[in-house]
Amino acid sequence: MVRVGLATAACATLVGCATVEGVFGRSGPRLGTPGFVQGFLGGVAAEEPRTALIGRDILAAGGSAADAAAAMGFALGVTLPSRASLAGGGVCLAYDPRRDQAIAATFLPRAPSVLDPGSDRPAALPGTPRGLFALHARLGRLPFEQAIAPAEQLARFGTPISRALARDLAIVATPLFADPNARARFARPNGAPLDEGDLLVQPELANLIGLIRSQGVGDLYQGGLARRLAEASRAAGGALTFEDLRNTLPQLTTTVSIRLGPDVVHAAPVGGSVGAAAALRALAARASAEDAAATARAAAAAVRAGADPQAVLEGAMPAGGALPALLGATTSFVVVDREGQAVTCAFTNNNLFGTGRIAPGLGLVLAAAPGIGAVPPALPSVLLMSNSPLRAFRLAAAASGGEASPIALALAAREAMVGRSAADAVSAARPAEADRVGRVSLVHCAGYLPRDPSSCSWAADPRGFGLALGAD
């Protein structure tokens, strides 16, 4: 200690020697480099494995949950474009323990204001890039450009096809390959769809992400990239306009919420999220799983029909609303950092592979405009729980699976609340369709975070092909 003190004092008197670090060197990686954080990092769960790995790396580099969410959202546009293209959209919930504040970011892919008569596959307006940028601007720590760089690398140098993407390709390969651009990207030389483990290289998409990284997200909505996207969508039968792109803005609002015991349950003001929160409240009041599922459907339908989300969550259920027979495909993830900041997101193209066409020159799978023809809007389902007196995080979860997602999410959250680990909570049996198609990603800290990191567990649904990672 005496030698260190003398060296420090000597350093202060030398020209060009400003810190002890200059004498002894760094003891570890710099902020923004994986390995900067050691020990407890937080937790990540996602329906696509590569996305979870990227989220873990961002946390290990000292990034916040919002940094990881931005990285994971852009990565999904590369690794799972069937459900989460960067031309699609979604909804996120975020919790900031420093302010004890929960935020809902809504950036769903919506229909254009005017449909071009010549468009045979109307495309939705892309919400994801601006939505994730807005969330990151509020809660991020690392530069946004650094957060989205891993997605660019995956697209440029290639990533192995995951089982999740291979499954989606197998379902829709025949109609998808009617588009020559989609066939060139997703088919083998013999015409068969790429399978699990095949390398997917997307140079046009890599260039697009590189331009977003260097020129800013705004360029995709009101600059040269926006004009290119409008022209490319027209060539693909989608016909987006520059004016609509410029006016495509995310909404960052407070959440709708209810109390369950000492905790607050937060929902986004969209049908699936409100339905999941209403079902969780019903389960806490000892309703059966079947009755809670009915509550979830009624709440989701009411919000989609225009009812006030907070009023519905508090028990007001206007009559008349109904969910369509089919709902758009979704995917989701959850990420929590070691300080208790949490983000849970669900993404959609409103259809598997959206319109089934790729914007030429940009590499974007165009999302389908909702409510037009037979295209059903999605039902993104996300939940988050916090404790205001403790200014602490407890639970974050998200689900996919159409109409089954809200009740699947509520049941898994309830299992975690009564003391089961995250893995047991997402594995527990559910009734009927929720057990067959519901997919839940969940992080739970029974002793709250950042108070008790040892109480945290994380899991991806074993019914799917996801991955969950944490401190080790």
* Overall helicity: 40-55%
Broad shape: globular
Radius of gyration: 23 Å
**Count of extended strands:** 17
Strand content: 15-25%
Structural class: alpha+beta
What's the story with the biggest beta sheet? Answer: 7 strands, antiparallel
Number of helices: 19
Average pLDDT score: 92
Intertermini distance? 32 Å
Side by side, the strands of the main sheet go: 6-3-2-10-9-1-17
Number of domains: 1
Low-confidence stretches: 1-26
Q: How would you characterize this protein structure?
A:
The chain has helices at residues 2-13, 20-24, 49-60, 65-79, 81-84, 128-139, 144-157, 163-176, 180-186, 203-215, 219-222, 224-235, 242-246, 271-284, 289-304, 309-313, 405-417, 422-427, 432-437, and strands at 42-46, 89-96, 101-107, 159-160, 199-200, 251-254, 256-260, 263-267, 330-337, 342-348, 358-359, 364-365, 381-387, 392-400, 439-449, 456-460, 467-469. With 472 residues, the protein is α+β, with helices and mostly antiparallel strands. The strands form 4 sheets. A 7-stranded antiparallel sheet has the order 6-3-2-10-9-1-17, with helices on one face. A 6-stranded antiparallel sheet has the order 7-8-13-14-15-16. Strand 2 and strand 3 form a beta hairpin. The radius of gyration is 23 Å and the shape is globular.
